[in-house]
Amino acid sequence: MGWNKVAMVGAGLIRMGELFDQSYEQMAYGAFKAVVDSVDKGFDPSQVEAAIVATQRGTLWGQEGIGGNTVPSAIGIAGIPCTRVENACPSGSDAFRIGAMVVASGVHDVVLVIGVEKMRDKSTEEGLLSRAAAGHPVYNRGETAPVLFAPFATRHMHDFGTTREMLASVAVKNHHNGALDPYAHFQSEITMQQVLDSPPVCHPLHLLDCCPQTDGAAAVLLVSAERAKEFTDKPVWVAGFGVATDHPYMHEKSSYVGLPATTMAAERAYAMSGVSPDEIDMAEVHDCFTITEILDIEDLGFVEKGKGGIASIEGETAIGGRIPVNPSGGLLAKGHPIGATGVAQVTECFWQLRHEAGDRQIEVRNGNALQHNVGGRGSGVAVVNILTTNAS
């Protein structure tokens, strides 16, 4: 049923956090070394035929001529074809999708997908994220990321009885998972009361309802199905993917209890893979805010619309629950280095499907995992990738 023309044979990342002691290039090298070291049967860096680099460096730093084209040199493989992908929060997810299509096309057999982001060397006051979200001078006046997502929370509360405790349960779960993840930005547990008592940001979202700004890098290796056995006896296959867009401004939205781009991207990924939501063993989803994960699990078909808050607070999305969500700690605990986020999520799926996730290992029943990001102005773009251990 699945597409399964492309195999993941390696994945790695660096510890996420405030990495003032590392340059952009050093972070990239760390992720590349990690992915090279992860290949079961060994891997020579010279085997990389092309690279897809995910980064928001152009938008965030105003350095359009730097970023993707500097990474091959920084990691020691200068000379190869390299393309930079910049597509808002799903940049890493889209780079993965594009890398898979490059391999499937037959143009290259071995492709490196790497995401790198420096978020903490500039402050918010310097316009880091406001520049990235810039749009119409009137329509988006005063709109920060929390301001954009808070109306979804209040509407979900109004329509479905979702409570602040339900929102907080997402943060508690993901920080618990992050405490089990040696790569996470935050590695300590929090309580529901701490979430509820944390400083307000934009009602009903408080500080611990929000993901941090994080530095980080992650990388994966994609190879053709025909060559997968050269590198590993445990490949993880790319089963399918989907991308969709939505209107960028809040006044254009048709609903405040769902993100249409996520729903459309998921439908396309499920159709391509031949996998249904109830066949997914675990998911890494975009939890930039606690309400976002609740919307995600509804929009991805894991729970009925309006039941995301109940599912979260009742433990359905915990590591041992019916559908484990964000066992890595998610964006809330692992962090959100934009270009690297999707690649890091795919890495977690790779480890989980291969039973290599340590203390946060989920029960793999069907051999399928889903990775998702949504972002951009008004959550205007979403990417879903589905991975499997089932050969077609």
The number of helical segments is 13
Distance between the termini: 6 Å
Q: Write the CATH homologous superfamily.
A: Thiolase/Chalcone synthase
Q: Mean pLDDT, nearest integer?
A: 92
The description of the largest β-sheet is: 9 strands, mixed
- Which fold name fills CATH's third level, the topology? Peroxisomal Thiolase, Chain A, domain 1
CATH architectural group: 3-Layer(aba) Sandwich
Largest sheet, spatial ordering of strands: 3-2-4-7-1-8-11-10-9
| CATH C-level name | Alpha Beta
Structural class: alpha/beta
Helical amount: 25-40%
Give a nutshell description of this structure.
The chain has 392 residues and is an alpha/beta fold. Helices cover 33% and strands 17% of the residues.
Write up what this structure looks like.
With 392 residues, the protein is α/β, with parallel strands linked by helices. It has a single domain (6-123, 211-388), classed as Peroxisomal Thiolase, Chain A, domain 1 (3-Layer(aba) Sandwich). The chain has helices spanning 24-38, 57-61, 71-74, 91-105, 128-132, 145-160, 164-178, 192-197, 260-273, 290-299, 308-313, 330-333, 338-353, and strands spanning 6-13, 50-54, 82-85, 110-117, 200-202, 205-206, 216-224, 236-245, 282-284, 368-375, 381-388. The strands form two sheets. It has a nine-stranded mixed beta sheet. Strands 5-6 form a two-stranded antiparallel ribbon. Helix 4 packs across helix 13 and helix 7 crosses helix 10 (290-299).
